[in-house]
Every structure is written in C-alpha cells, then in structure tokens.
Amino acid sequence: MESQELPYVLTDCIGGRHGVYEDHAEFLKKHFSLITMKEYLENKKLLGEKIRAIYAWYHKPVIDEELLRSLPNLKIVASSGVGIDHLDLNLLSRYGVKVSNTPFIVSNDTADLGMALMLASSRRLVEGYEMAVSPDTEYFPADWLGAEVSGATLGIVGMGTIGYKVANRAKAFEMKILYHNRNQRNKEEESAVGAIYCKKIDDLLQQSDFVLLSVNLTPQTHKLIGKRQLQLMKPTATLINISRGLVVDQDALVEALQNHVIKAAALDVTYPEPLPRGHPLLKMKNVIITPHIGSATKKTRRLMMENMMESIQAGLTGLPIPNEVLL
Q1: Which residue of the set 52, 180, 185, 244 is catalytic?
Q2: pLDDT digits (tens, 9 = 90+) for 245-257
Q3: What number of other Cβ atoms are within 10 A of residue 254's Cβ?
Q4: 39, 130, 148, 273: which one is catalytic?
Q5: Which sign, positive or negative, has the C-alpha torsion 25, 26, 28, 32?
Q6: Average of pLDDT values for 220-226?
C-alpha cells in the first residue's frame, strides 16, 4: 500500500542564526514535508499549490499579501511565542487562514527572566561583575550599594499569564504587588498572590519601586510608557520590560535615565533588536539589556515546536486548534 504524502509546510530556513533548530527540523520532518523559503522560491508553481501551513519561527518568514496570494491552499500559520504583532490578522482572516501561537508554554521562563532582571538591576550585578574582574580593581568600596527587592513594591502592567506568574514569584520575596490590567482578576486570584488592582495605571506608576511591563503589543499599548508616565514614577524606581520594545518610548526612556527621572531600566526587549551599536542605552551603567531571551531555554523551545506542530495538525484535519488566535 502506497504511503500517504506528508502535508507540505513552509518555513523560513533550517539552522543558522535565525532558522528552525536542526534537531527540531529532524522531528518535524517525521510529520511534514518541510519546505524552506529558498526551496519555495525556486519552484513556486509546484510548491505554491501544495503548501498548506506556515511554520513561523520567530517572525519568519514574513507573511504578506504577495505570499498569501501564491499559497491558495494555505490553512494555518503557527507562530512561535506569545506576540503576534508581526502578523496582519485581518489580512490572514480575509484569506481564510487561521493563526495559532504558544502563549502558555513561554510563561514560566519569561516570568523567571523578569525576576532575574529585577534582581540583577536592583543589586547591580553587571556592574559588580565588571568591578570584580577588572584588572584595575584594587579594593571593593564599602559604599557600593544596591536596592532591596524584598519588601519593595512591584507594579505589574499586564496581569495575563506571564504577569500573574511574576506576581507569584514576587510573593516569595514578600513584595507588595500592584497590578494594572484591562480586566480585574477575580478575588481568589488576587488573594493567592496578594495583588492589589489599580484601575488607573497612573496610581501604579506613582507607588511602585519596580514597574514591570508584561503586555502584548497592540495599537493601545504602543508607547504605553512615555515621557508623562516616566515622570510619574519614583526617582528611585526601575522599569523592567519583558513584553515588546515598542511598548516603551525609548527616546523618552533615555531622557528619563539621563536626567535621573527614574533610577534604572532592565530590558529584555528593545526596538529595534539589536539596538544600533552607538545607541545611548548601551552606554548607561544603570541599564541592563538582554537579547530577547524570555523563552530561551532548551525545554521551552522544544515544547513550543511540539505545540506548533500540534496546531498545524489540528488546523489541517479540522480539529480545534490549540491556542488559536482569534480576531
């Protein structure tokens, strides 16, 4: 009996800096005929008709109308991670294409990183490391001090899955937890982590020692934190961003840090990524920047891949799609 042909799935590339990991591709090829963009562009006529799904690993390939027109049998785009700001959902919907992401899988790792950034910034770990290993260091100054995290006030902007997991971790540090969200959590959820709802973001900004951003990038959250919001924060406060770079007005942030409007910033995300090498944020001792590594652990990336595979399989067989993104 002739074996059934595997579904054709388009991805950007395999291996290299931005491609699907080699071991992931090996696994995926047991379930799909994995086609790279290079292979597709070399044989558009044949492959365009066959491709039924796109495996979008870290925002690639770019999915625009030209590509959608050339894939008449496309059913689903499975996108890695939480953010979907790189996808035009209305455009995909017009072409009858469904979308999935992997929001819950990344939440623990991203919450861990949020706490790591808070601790590293407050205790000045990067500066401390540089001092400890510098050939010019002759002594450790007694007045070289950081700030306490335990007992401090944490304001979480965006109390979704990640924000709530941050709150759960912050509870262990006996922090006072404030949060601002589109919708208030129920009393049981608030009580479990000791969180207090701030209907107005201004109230949260004025009271918090640490402000942590954990929101999706939408037209409503674009530059949510700008000059006015930074001026509301305490001069001793630290801004932590684990969401998207464009949630913060970076020019306003640079100005606020230079003028001591706030004390420090710890950023896993910027705009663009990476920042131009001469950008002012890269030269400030009161700024920590990591290379967008919220979900960057082996286990989580593997789970993301498996979840995307399951979403594609469901989308191609008419079953409910795990983590389908709805308009």
Answers
A1: 244
A2: 999 999 999 999 9
A3: 16
A4: 273
A5: positive
A6: 97
